[in-house]
Amino acid sequence: MLYTCDGNNTSPPLAWSGAPAGTQGFAVVMLDTSLAAPNNVHWVIYDLAASVTALPASIPNGYSIAAPVAAHQTKSSFNPVFEYLGPCPPPGGGAHDYELTLYAVDAPTLPGLDMTSTPQAVIAQIVAHKVASTKLVGKFAR
Fold this sequence. Notes:
Blueprint: E1 14-15, E2 25-32, E3 41-49, E4 54-55, E5 64-65, E6 71-73, E7 96-105, H1 119-128, E8 130-140
Antiparallel strand pairs: 1-4, 2-3, 2-7, 3-6, 5-6, 7-8
C-alpha cells in the first residue's frame, strides 16, 4: 500500500543486475494494463546511466532529476506533473494489473525527446532502442 495513492504515493525502490552487452542506459515504465492504452501510463523514468543499478524509493518530481540519480521523467496519463503516480484503481472497481518494466537501451540519452514529449512518444523511443527488458507485475484493488 505504501507506493499507492492510498499510501505515500511515492516510487518504490528498485534494483537490478546483469545488464546485457550493448546496454548504454536504462528506462523504467509503469503501466496499468487493465486500461486501454494510451490512458494507462503511471510512470516513465528514462535516460538513466548504464552504471545505475538501483533506484531508491521516493524519486523526486520533475522532468530533469539530478539526484539521487540523473534522469528524465514524463507526465502520467492522469496528471500533468512529471512524477510517479502509484496504483489507484477506482474504489470498488476490482483489482487492476500494474506492470513495471525495466528496459536496457542502446543509447545513453534517447534521441529527439524533451519535456514536451508525450509518455507514448517516450515509450516508443524506449522500445525502439531496447536491448532487453524484464517485467514485474502486481495487482491492486481499493
